[in-house]
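User: Predict the structure for this protein chain, please.
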Amino acid sequence: MDSQLEILKKTKVLPDEEYNEYASALSDWGNIGYSIIEEIKNGEKEKAIDEIFNSCTPALNKLVEIAIRLDEITDEVSSLQELQLFLLLQEWCVLLSVWFVHAHWLR
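Assistant: Here is the predicted structure, written as structure tokens:
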């Protein structure tokens, strides 16, 4: 999971504050999950069930809320990049058209 978080961070798509919030929430949820696994291994099933309902589920809900918000941010960035590409292609079309007209007029 850490390597995937590093890849996400290196893309620079998310502001540091948003990335840190997501990474922290993911880490918190993972730690709770590991704690539940240990409780189950130790035979503390009732404690594990309690922790699933009272800790794990709220932590997962928080993580999902953050992920949805980040998805909206990445969608905005993607749309902006698509617009920039469209404008660049449009600019190239205009330049090629001018070059083509100019080249034919010089014949």
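The mean pLDDT is 76.
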